[in-house]
Specification:
By secondary structure, the chain is an alpha/beta fold. A 7-stranded mixed sheet has the order 8-7-6-9-12-17-18, with helices on both faces. Strands 13-10-11-16 form a 4-stranded mixed sheet, covered by helices on one side. Strands 3-4-5 form a 3-stranded antiparallel sheet. The radius of gyration is 20 Å and the shape is globular.
Length: about 375
């Protein structure tokens, strides 16, 4: 059974059917997700039926993007409670899920939410309570991202008002921070969808985002929604900025420190540097669970995941005869490093677009929007 959409939901249609990126299926016990490594060439759904299914889906990037990782982890706890409801099983499930991806802040946040909902509850109630809280976290994510969209829309409208008549507002993105990376709407894409739906003349430059070519997911999303876009090689953005072809950069975030430093897909830092050199605003869109107020220095404090070198040395695509195949890019024997993220210092960020508003990327800016969390982090230090 697909979840009932709320008023904030965009109700994405794929082949005429409404989709979120994760939902309960069957009698409500199994969990289904979109198998993202198969996109954009194949749209397939994968069933998660156990804790280990959920953990492996996160590790293998069947689900990816910080908000969706959190949602999948929450449902992973629910699946684990179907297997065993003891305190030991609950703690073991959270440890297993926490080990899957080190960088995204939403993973730990979602697991802490699930622990808070289940730890003091009778074992006979834990399965139902786990599914209920996981569903709530998904609904909350939809609402958070819709609010991000509204705040980001105001920025786009203001920038568009300065454009000469007949010229589109050109936005540059990096990686995929769309509805596929969240439960719905997306973070960086939420303002784009709203702007497009309101008739704003909009064009999006979509970085391919090697090594996993996640820009292909952004292009797939934008194409299904009818948003004008052009895919570019990762190293093209600086050239476009130098020639006045980019008006604003908007990315997502996997973890943001309490001081405004941003960890995002590798290559984001270089886009921020190019934007600063060309006086182009650089915004980061993120829900508040992505903020880690316990960290002050992103460069030294945020763990940077290093993934399988095979993600760099090979690429999967569609051949001329229509088959899906993987090919090797480099000669055998070359050493390959695969850093998944980099950190953009807050000084390079024009503003953080959150569900509570737009804040300077600074301790004072974030504390103004989220005073209770900032105060609690200060007291814990």
């Amino acid at each position: 059974m697909l979840p009932v959409g709320r008023s904030a939901e965009r109700e994405v249609k794929v082949d005429g059917r409404h989709y979120r990126s994760i939902w309960c299926a069957g009698e409500g016990q199994a969990v289904e997700v979109i198998d993202q490594p198969r996109l954009p060439h194949l749209f397939e759904v994968r069933a998660l039926e156990s804790l280990e299914d959920a953990a492996q889906a996160i590790e293998s990037m069947v689900v990816r993007g910080a908000p969706l990782i959190g949602a999948a982890a929450a449902y992973g706890v629910a699946l684990a409670m179907r297997e065993a409801t003891s305190d030991e099983a609950l703690e073991r499930a959270c440890r297993r899920l926490l080990s899957t991806r080190p960088t995204a802040a939403n993973l730990r946040w979602a697991l802490e939410e699930m622990l808070a909902a289940l730890r003091n509850r009778h074992r006979d109630e834990r399965v139902e309570a786990a599914y209920r809280r996981a569903a709530q976290l998904c609904d909350e994510d939809v609402e958070l991202n819709a609010a991000i969209g509204r705040h980001g829309l105001a920025i786009l409208q203001d920038l568009a008002s300065d454009k000469p008549p007949g010229q589109p507002l050109n936005v540059l993105t990096h990686c995929n921070a769309g509805w596929l990376a969240t439960v719905d709407w997306g973070t960086a894409t939420a303002p784009l969808y709203l702007a497009h739906d309101l008739g704003l003349d909009l064009h999006v430059w979509v970085d391919e985002t090697r090594p996993r070519n996640q820009g292909a997911l952004t292009a797939w999303e934008l194409g299904h929604h009818g948003v004008a876009h052009t895919v570019i090689a990762d190293n093209t953005g600086g050239h476009l900025m130098q020639h006045g072809l980019v008006d604003v950069v908007i990315t997502g975030s996997d973890r943001t420190t309490g001081t405004g430093d941003v960890a995002n897909k590798i290559g984001t830092y270089l886009k921020a540097l190019a934007a600063r050199d060309n006086a182009i605003p650089f915004y980061v869109a993120l829900p508040s669970p992505t903020i880690d107020f316990s960290l002050g220095d992103g460069l030294s404090g945020i763990p940077i995941e290093q993934r399988d070198p095979a993600e760099v040395s090979g690429v999967t695509g569609r051949t001329e005869n229509g088959d899906i195949a993987r090919v090797e890019v480099f000669a055998p024997g070359s050493a390959v490093a695969n850093y998944a993220f980099d950190v953009t210092p807050g000084r390079l960020v024009t503003g953080l677009i959150t569900e509570a508003g737009v804040a300077p990327a600074s301790p004072e800016g974030l504390a103004a929007l989220f005073p209770q969390r900032a105060r609690a982090a200060t007291q814990q230090r």
